[in-house]
Amino acid sequence: MGIRTGDQYIEALKSRKPEVWLNGKLVESIFDEPYFQQPILEIARLYDMQHDPAYQEDLTVICEETGERMAASFLPPRSYEDIMKRSKAFEVVARQTYGLMGRTPDFLNTVVTSLAQNSWFLSKYNKDWAANIESYYRHLRDNDLFLTHAIVNPQNDRSKTSHEQSDKFTHLGAVEERPEGLVVRGAKMLATLAALTDEVIIYSFPGFAPGDERYALAFAIPIDTKGLKIICREPVQDGTRSTFDHPLASRYEEMDALLIFEDVVVPWDKVFLYNNVEAANLLYPMTGIAEQPAHQSSVRGYIKLAFAVEVACKVADSIGVDQYLNVQRDLGELVQSVEVIRALLRTAEREYTMTERGEARLNPDALETIRGMMPEMYPRAVEVMQTIGAGGLLMMPTEADFLNPELRPSIDRHYGGREGVDAELRMKIFKLAWDLCGEAFGMRALQYERYYTGDPIRKRAIFYNKFKKQHNFDLVNSILAKENCLKEPQTN
Ligand SMILES: Cc1cc2c(cc1C)N(C[C@H](O)[C@H](O)[C@H](O)COP(=O)(O)OP(=O)(O)OC[C@H]1O[C@@H](n3cnc4c(N)ncnc43)[C@H](O)[C@@H]1O)c1[nH]c(=O)[nH]c(=O)c1N2
Ligand SMILES: O=C(O)Cc1ccc(O)cc1
Question: Which Gene3D superfamilies does its entry note (predicted)?
């Protein structure tokens, strides 16, 4: 089939009935659920853009194997040109959602592409696993499917490994092998957009200990597979909030969910790894599964930070406070943070290396520095927005007030900004800012930047430990090796 249209995505959505729980109720029809409607349309628009002549060249490439168009995120990177082709596509997608939807289809396309491109690693353990991921990649690419993923165990008792939890199946693990497939039971988090996707892929961050064999798993299944329960978090919007009052929350809600597998049968040809702690722990370091998605998330994060910084600047300008030195200092800092991320991104792309098997892999240190800095830079942008907007963020009336002819003269008189900024523009800017820095939507967007790539504290510690192991401290060693040139003690 090649690239899908938005309608094809929606038709597929309508044809399924996954077990999705929202606000204590089983969702009857995903498409008709008001909470999901706008985000579905946002995703559909991304599929439509692949067919739009204005975007097609940026978003798609011709597949070498099929001769059909495919999303550029399925292109296995083998050169700098491939890297930049993908980078451009990630950016076009990110700009459509202002970087606020992190798990658009391109994200998991890169995960599956990197696994398939590095199937040699899986074949060291089991030839079937390698063949399975390769054919899954083709299935995903050729049907242009939308995936979610869940790679983290729920926070039950973090001081214990999976096999030490009080219930053997608190965490997702294998129950038994049957001729038709592997039976799995337990929970995994935090599947963003799960209800709106076609399929789910499961794998894990490293960290398995001996005894965790049953939890060392990787597989994919359709989202409506029998026994898969999807429990959504509390929504941040209800599908009826005005786009004037909540320009972002009303459009870009990415519903997160816990996945509970109740004796789900995974067909053997969809199992990519099983019962092997060593393979599960090496999956990240040995495949491009960290770098390829991190490329997408770095581009998207760059756009999101740039957007938040623009909003902060507009808030300051609209009320004339950016003439003050302290405000200029803070905004200057934010603009520089965007430049830092942009520079790191370009460094990661330019300083790619070729793996022995021909994958062009981005500089991992530059990528990891983005992943280390964003959890500080994005919350800082939000904080600056809060302090510059100050009390004004809390006094904005609603669209209903604005549209009421009795109130309108007062609104026009008292809600305007500096000269040239009328009440409507000022309200629009401040409502954008409030969605980012005050609303539950904005707090979720902030929490996403902190944690989407794992715990930033431990990730930074790992980064330092790797640095210490690999770095030879030439500079310091050279001065330590200089001859001792202490002056002789003076004698009288
Ligand atoms: C909005 C949003 C959206 C998503 C996701 C997160 C968020 C916030 N993620 C989940 C993400 O992968 C996950 O949140 C991070 O890996 C962090 O893990 P925990 O949240 O379990 O924190 P975790 O429980 O690991 O940490 C909690 C706190 O305890 C500390 N801590 C825990 N264990 C420790 C240890 N061993 N040593 C030292 N300190 C320790 C941490 O430093 C932290 O402060 C996700 N995932 C996914 O698979 N698919 C998805 O789509 C998404 N989407
Ligand atoms: O390690 C990365 O940054 C890539 C990645 C991040 C989060 C995730 O859920 C999957 C891959």
Answer: 4-hydroxybutyryl-coa dehydratase, domain 1, Butyryl-CoA Dehydrogenase, subunit A, domain 2, Butyryl-CoA Dehydrogenase, subunit A, domain 3
| In contact, 192 and 230? CB cutoff 8 Å | no
Alpha-carbon distance values, 228 to 110, 172, 205, 220, 259 (Å): 24, 12, 21, 12, 7
**pLDDT for 186:** 98
User: Shortest CA distance to 20 belongs to which of 28, 31, 9, 11?
Assistant: 28
111 Cα nearest atom in ligand 2 = 11
Question: Residues with Cβ < 8 Å from 206, sequence gap 6 or more?
Answer: 280, 281, 282, 283, 284, 285
202-250 pLDDT tens trace: 999 999 999 999 999 999 999 999 999 999 999 998 888 899 999 999 9
- Please tell me if the CB atom of residue 151 comes closer than 6 angstroms to any atom of ligand 2: yes
Task: Evaluate whether residue 475 is within a structural domain.
Answer: no
The torsion angle over the Cα atoms of residues 370, 371, 376 and 379, rounded to 10 degrees, is 110
Binding site listing for FAD: 149-151, 155-158, 192, 455-458
Q: What residues contact 385, with CB distance under 8 A and at least 6 apart?
A: 308, 311, 312, 315, 433, 436, 437
First to last CA, the chain: 95
Clarify whether residues 175 and 232 are in a common domain.
yes
Residue 339 near residue 437 (C-beta atoms within 8 A): no
- For residue 160, pLDDT beyond 70: yes
Give the Cα separation of 411 and 427 in Å (integer).
10
> What confidence score (pLDDT) does residue 490 get?
65
Residues 93 and 151 occupy one common structural domain: yes
Q: Is residue 492 part of a domain?
A: no
| Residues in CB range of 425: below 8 A, 6 or more apart | 318, 417
For residue 59, the enclosing domain spans 6-287
Whole-angstrom Cα distance, residue 333 to residue 305?
12
Same domain assignment for residues 275 and 347: no
| pLDDT at residue 185, rounded to an integer | 98
CB atoms within 10 A of CB 14: 12
Q: Is residue 490 part of a domain?
A: no
**Residue 238, pLDDT score:** 84
Q: Helix 34-49 to helix 80-96 angle, to the nearest 10 degrees?
A: 140
Domain tally for the chain? 2
**Ligand lying closest to the C-alpha of residue 115:** 2
Asked whether residue 250 is assigned to any structural domain, the reply reads yes
Is there a cis peptide before residue 190, judged by omega within 30 degrees of 0? yes
Give me ligand 1 centre to Cα 12, in Å. 31
CATH of the domain at 457: 1.20.140.10
